[in-house]
Prior knowledge:
Layout: H1 21-33, E1 41-47, E2 53-59, E3 62-64, E4 67-73, H2 77-84, E5 87-94, E6 99-109, H3 112-121, H4 124-132, H5 142-155, E7 167-181, E8 189-194, E9 199-203
Antiparallel strand pairs: 1-2, 1-5, 3-4, 4-7, 5-6, 6-7, 7-8, 8-9
Helix pairs in contact: 4-5
Amino acid sequence: MRVDYKEDADLDVANLRDGWLPVAQQWLAAAIEARIPEPNAMVLATVDADGRPASRTVLCKGLDARGVVFYTNYDSDKGTHLRRTPYASVTFPWIGIERQLTIRGTVSTVSTEATAAYFASRPRGSQLGAWASQQSRPVASREELEQALVKMTERFDGQDVPVPPNWGGFRIEPETVEFWQGRTSRLHNRIRLTIPTQQVERLQP
């Protein structure tokens, strides 16, 4: 199964003269405009205690000059991995517009204030779900999981749902940012910015 990519405005090293963020924001806006499902979805890669990679899809909830932010249960597999090895890679797979954005860098937790503000913006069902799920841990059945949600719904009935003590945000601070743009004959455009040195270079596809 092969698809030959269409031609549009070529990505070039000159596009990153003002840094990576303007292009990243433009590409995210293009993905939203193209109505790509979950345009803020990104594949997060971490490593476990044995140095073996693990990947899963999470949702980007912040994209600015400081990096990329997502939220999760800190006791989940990814949370455990990142506390042990605070370095990660995320890729936005915007296949529908023939683009990808990959950001790699060090990881830190966001402030409790930022976590609280974001948690308050979530739908109530999502807030309760964060309490009900012991993320990444085994569960005997779907019914047991649903019953845990019922219990949390009853527990917080008539009151605001607080942030769980083991839940919050991670920020990936970019060290390298790579833009990938599909091209004909598999001669794709790959442009990488290395933040510490501000080196911008074209990579062979």
